[in-house]
Specification:
The chain is mainly alpha-helical. It has one domain. Helix content is 58%, strand content 8%. The chain contains 3 helices and 2 strands. The longest helix is centred in the N-terminal third of the chain and has 30 residues.
Length: 106
């Protein structure tokens, strides 16, 4: 009999259970994602209240090439000397690209 257990929404076979170190690492990953997504939400809501509505961008202006160029440029700026908080801008932009192009997001 294969028994399945659930860890934060992820089902695994008993034979695939994590070692204590793997569980610690996974919890650190989940915590980092939770903290970072909270920063993303705060920034998006703050910008919304400032009048920015770009996350519902016009499809005619939103081309794949423009999105990829902008995303890579923003990520490069952050990686090569940008401020840590700019990473939230990159992540929010990536979320907008995902929302516009993903079937799961619709």
């Amino acid at each position: 009999m294969i028994r399945k257990t659930q860890h934060r929404g992820v089902y695994r076979k008993e034979s695939e259970m994590n070692t204590p170190q793997q569980s610690k690492d996974i919890n650190e990953i989940i915590r980092a994602i939770d903290m970072f997504s909270g920063e993303m939400k705060r920034k998006m809501i703050a910008n919304y209240h400032k009048g920015y509505r770009g996350w519902k961008c016009n499809t005619k202006r939103f081309t794949r090439q423009n999105a990829e160029f902008s995303l890579h440029a923003k990520a490069g700026d952050v990686f090569f000397g940008g401020e840590y908080w700019q990473a939230v801008d990159v992540a929010n932009f990536a979320m907008m690209v995902w929302r516009k192009t993903s079937k799961e997001a619709k």
